[in-house]
Amino acid sequence: MIGKKEWYLMKKYLRMACLACAAMLLLVLCACGQSSDQKEIQSPAAGTSDTQNPSAQGEEWPTQPINVIVSFGAGGDTDILCRKLCDIMSEELGVPIVCTNVEGSSGTVAARQVKDSAADGNTVLWHQSSFLVASATGIADFDYTDFEIAGVAVEEVSDCLMVRKGSYDGFEDFIQAAKDHPGELNYGTSLGGYSHMQALAVADAFDVDFNIVDIGGGSETIAALLAGDIDFVITTNNYARTYVESGDCEVLCVVANERCDITPDWPAMSEFGENCDITKFFGFYMPKGTDPAIVEKWSEAVDHAVNSEEYSETCEQYAVTPAYSTGEEALEMHNTQYEMAKKYAQEMIN
Amino acid sequence: MQLFLSSLAQIMTPMILLYILLGVVMGLVFGAIPGLTGTMAIALCLPLTFGMEPTMAFALLIALYIGGISGGLVSAILINIPGTPSSVATTFDGAPMARNGQAGKALGAGTFYSLVGNIFGIAVMIFVAPMLAQVALKFGVYEYTAVSLFALSLVSGLAGKSVTKGLVSCAVGMLLGCFGAAPIDGYARFTFGISGLEAGFASVPALVGLYALKELLAEAKPSGKVNILDVDTHIKGLGFSKKEFVCQIPNMIRSALIGAWIGILPGIGGATANIMAYGIAKKRSKYPEKFGTGIIDGVVASETANNATIGGAMIPLLTLGIPGDAVTAILLGTFTIHGLQPGPLFFSQNYDLIYTIFAAMIVASVVTFLVQLFGMRGFIKVLKLPKHILLPIVIVLCVVGSFGVNNRLFDAWVLIIFGLIGYIMSKFDYPLAPIILGFILGPITETYMRRGLQLSKGSFLPFLTRPISGVFIVLTVVFIALTIISSIRKSKRAEATNL
Amino acid sequence: MKDSILRLLHWYRDALAAAVLLLIFAFFLSSSRHIQVMIASSVDAKFFPIVICTFGIILCAVNVAAGVVRGNKLRRKEIEEAIGPNVSPEEKSAAIKSVLSIVSIIVYLVLIEPLGFVIASALYLFVQIMLLSERGKRNPILYVVIAVVVSAACYLFFRNVFYLMLPSGLLPL
Fold first, then answer.
1. Is B77 on the interface with A (CB under 8 A)?
2. Are residues C64 and C133 in the same domain?
3. Is CB count within 10 Å lower at the N or C end of chain A?
4. Residues A161, A232: contact at Cβ < 8 Å?
């Protein structure tokens, strides 16, 4: 008996082998230097997809490889969380899912590309909360209502406020220092991004003022922290763990209302008397006007993948929570978070 | 050492070797086809590695990386179109060599010095990684600004006959780099209502386009056709002599150091390293006027440097968990997928895997060398294909490659727009290399300078007072002053001879 | 009349090219003023474009001057030596071929979406190869075969092996 999964894996290896053959063939063809045309056709078609009738709607969908446009660069958490998910989903949907990274302007470029593509379910956007911030600041001149929300998959409420080891004696000391030197503590972020909003939320809650400077995304902020260019960062939990473990840095608080399971020793921001209501989430979006049956089918696949054993392992690595929602519920969440983003956007643009 | 040997033995299984071979071949093909890059091959193969053993996954990805960077030299030399941005400088002397009937020698040198560059980069990575990483960490925004300014000043060395024309080219490149989202603010500049321009011009189609269209249109010229010299396809060994090897040793070492160092600095990358190494080799040479006419020095500098960036780029990734370029960013994600935690402790916690990666890199370098060496005779035959058929096919492949960058047609338009710019500018004797330097370094300089000014609250002083950055600023000024003095002298001499 | 204009163009081409570049820089300098700025400071998003364009304009002005000087020299020399304007017919046909090639590439990109990659590429390849090949030595049948086979192979290879979704257009693939 060959199960669906085995069959899928077999096809995958077949594709690998095919890739190998094709690459070899290409090289040989190059090497022979013959007018390079006659033989190329035979090899590749052996692969997987049969791409019949691209306009198939609803029931028949999916019939061809689905292209997921990832809003950030390859290798980052946004990218890996998506690729792993798609890897699982493609087994259920029975077609390959190809992830393409389209970088630029906090994901706006990717979003626009999907917004402008055909509403046939074959192009899907994977985006995160930065989308809301970009819309709120006007970097993007459209927002999530220009899409069909096709399943929120992951929530991340585990980001950590991190400083170089020994520079502050706990979070209260840090806030005191910020109060004593208003506007002098350097915070590194990519301006107009989600972490920019987080710093504003912290500053707002404790009524302090930071010098917010642009340093770039993710790992660049940590390099700047280690180099001493900036005084603190708010970074993902998985990053923070390694630098705390190595003794280079320490985490003053988790920017959330609750402690994080994986790091129970780190206090939550709410323990210092102020709440943090912004939430980072990741989800899929389809172009406006996509057949509801397609959106539903995709969302279901997302639901299953998100709740799979396999996916929860990846989520654990990144200290994010698999959290599926769709339809009204997801829209509600977008609305509240968007309101919040708009509030802080006023402060970002000045 | 023993650990290293045992990891070497560990990856010598047929299955892993097969993956390495597969990765190298695919990387070479992607590298050699203008518009497609090794980075793209890696992103495509990434999902395939999720289910693999970590050793196997990294062997495949690293083989793709090394093959992808090395493959660019083939098209750079044979058709004067760089296969990847990392081999732009290889065209400067590689293509003239091929035109002079020395294609075999150029390919041989390129292949050999790619290997040298790879091994050097890897050696640096293995032996001095943790120490170097600490130094690299001292590089903050001010230092980056100074280094990119210094790199920009090399433009004067690449300017060709007229320094002012070279500088205009550089300004054009920097202006083109300003398109799209502004660093820091994120609002788009110069889009003129075209939404495709929101993120600016993608660098791969831009750089490839600059050269591709020019080559195609050169074929329309009547003189371009006579040129089918009897190609010497019988190359012995690598095509260059022992004496030449000895002569190139200083150039080789210098270029390898430049490559490795540029690789270590996150974000600047191979596309700059090869041009920088070429510019410096020319500056330091006893016969700078021969550069560009087809001498081996240019190929050596470019190919050693671009491959040395690989080892360099791995250093901040493995020791600090900070990726230096697109490929190392993907590797970082792959570590996480396999349950490994990249970061400062990665090196000490995963000794076995790290050494396996080292071993895989060395094996992949050697395999790349061998594949290219055996393929060389075949590659050269490409020259025998009628160009009026070959070049249109190359253009179609460029379009495919550009389309693949972001899965949209707009990037193919970028290819053509830059093609036209390259064609027209070179028609009026404006050199292209400064356009590239300006295009790549302009945005980097702008980003870091503005970040620095944000940190210093608007003061330029830290750029001068921080020791490393101060030194580079002084170097930049000295370099520019020297160039101006020598160009004035040269023009005086030229006038004197004219009279 | 036409001759004298051509000769002027020939002598002063450097100066003209520099002048055109100068105008381009000037245009971008003027549009730099409309760049949207998030954080107002002395060095903002407008700063670099303005600096670059200003430098460009200065350098181009130098080049215009140098071009005029060089043109004057050339002019004197050619008038002294009585070299007439000579545009060889080959150069003329090369120029026409170049322009046609550029046009065909642009048409190719326009057609990729509506016609699909295979048809557009095949058409382009054929036209381009015909343009570049020498008159008496053309072999249209071979070119058609090459054009069709190469574009179909490219399409199948990239679409099925690398899932690069090249536009399918009219073909029901």
1. no
2. no
3. N
4. yes
